[in-house]
Design brief:
The protein is α/β, with parallel strands linked by helices and about 240 residues long. The protein contains 6 helices and 10 strands. The protein has one domain (about 20-235): Nucleoside phosphorylase domain (Rossmann fold, 3-Layer(aba) Sandwich), CATH 3.40.50.1580. Helices cover about 30% and strands about 30% of the residues. Helix 2 packs parallel to helix 5 (about 185-195) and helix 3 crosses helix 6 (about 220-235). Bound molecules: hypoxanthine (HPA). One of its GO terms (molecular function) is purine-nucleoside phosphorylase activity.
């Protein structure tokens, strides 16, 4: 195991086999403060805070990923390939793209379609479909059901753009059954499979792209709690 990388300097604080990754590093701090015991900080490079602690006796880490595929691409690559991390669970928000989905629902990303060329680096002679780890996905769905969450499982879009110049953009992806749009999971799934590791993305719906609805930070808390309980429960 590497001692440090250009973006992660743990200074001998261990990183767990499972890392939860919200986009926002302050969200990582919030998760560590509110859900984990025995917390130690393992990263502060570029303020991309990372923490290791315990949840119901299991050792779990949590670290921000930043926004977008280049950012999560760097952090997840280093965690998998230099720090022997087995599983990364992205815990994020997404914009819903189907009428049957409502604000605060949970979405589990079975697959992550993308308009990014992140996959081109592998020189695959075709179009690779980045998918979640099946076992993690099944466990997440079962536990979300147990919690009584409204949960949708399917294809999300990992988009390189938050603001789209093309006015047809959302309609075309909606037509292809995309449940919601976020900006990171495809790169995470690609890094996971390339390293022979596992990944899953779980999201709370923070806005509705079709209906132009948005949540407030306060209102998101309940859905966020369900998402966190699912992620922490399936962490090994
Ligand atoms: N688009 C992209 N990423 C997002 C969105 C969105 O509407 N909502 C939350 N993350």
């Amino acid at each position: 195991m590497t001692k440090s990388t250009p973006h992660i300097e743990p200074n001998d604080v261990p990183i767990a086999k499972t890392v939860l990754m919200p986009g926002d590093p302050l969200r990582a701090k919030y998760i560590a403060d509110h859900y984990l015991d025995n917390v130690e900080q393992f990263n502060s490079v570029r303020n991309m805070f990372g923490y290791t602690g315990t949840y119901k006796g299991k050792t779990v880490s949590v670290m921000g990923s930043g926004m977008g595929m280049p950012s999560i691409g760097i952090y997840s690559y280093e965690l998998y390939n230099f720090f022997d991390v087995e599983t990364i669970i992205r815990v994020g928000s997404c914009g819903a793209l189907q009428p049957q989905i409502n604000l605060y629902d949970l979405i589990i990303a079975q697959a992550a379609s993308t308009n990014s060329n992140y996959v081109d680096q592998y020189n695959i002679p075709g179009h690779y479909a980045p998918i979640a780890d099946f076992n993690l996905m099944v466990k997440a769905k079962q536990y979300a059901d147990q919690l009584g969450a409204t949960v949708h499982v399917g294809n999300v879009l990992s988009s390189d753009t938050f603001y789209n110049a093309d006015t047809q953009f959302n309609d075309q992806w909606q037509q292809m059954g995309i449940l919601g749009i976020e900006m990171e999971s495809a790169a995470l799934y690609l890094n996971a499979v390339h390293a022979g590791r596992q990944a899953l993305g779980i999201f709370t719906v923070s806005d509705h792209i079709l209906r132009d609805e948005a949540t407030t930070a306060e209102e998101r808390q309940n859905a966020f709690t369900q998402m966190m309980e699912v992620a922490l429960e399936i962490a090994e």
